[in-house]
Amino acid sequence: MAGGDPGGGSSALGQLIAQGHGAALRADLQRYYGLDLADVWRGALTPRRAWHLSEHLPPASALAASLAGGPEHRGWTVQTHLLAALLDAVRFADANNVRVSGGRLKREPVPVNVPQVKADKHERPRLDLSTHPLAKPIASGGNSWPAPEAAR
Predict the structure, then answer these.
(1) By C-alpha distance, which of 70, 125, 42 is closest to 50?
(2) Which of 27, 33, 39, 79 could be cross-linked to 45 through a Cys-Cys bond (beta carbons 3.0 to 4.6 Å apart)?
(3) How many angstroms separate the CA atoms of 82 and 76, rounded?
(4) Residues 7-57: pLDDT tens digits?
């Protein structure tokens, strides 16, 4: 494990942690899989496995909330957003029916307070491998993939 997981996951996992989502990931790995994120550094859990497990956490997980903007997003899945929109639609439709029939509302309907996804304040840093000793320039124009032996 000295050079990282050759199958990938190390850089993606590192970026996720560097962006401030490490605590949420650690909580979810413990809650859903009974694993400790620190096992990556102990050598008992590969970064690739941790990354793959994180990709399949449920929508109501702490990591999903952290990626959406913070703990206020915890539990807000697609279904709960749809239910909130449906409740708003029913409330406003009822208010309109009261107005159309000549009635008066005691108070205007208030929409459900749905947490808004926060936009990234800065562009996520991209992994730049152009200075890596094994990096090769991409051929300009056309297909950059080498042709198979049979096609040559």
Answers:
(1) 42
(2) 39
(3) 10
(4) 567 888 888 888 899 999 999 999 999 999 999 989 899 999 999 999 999
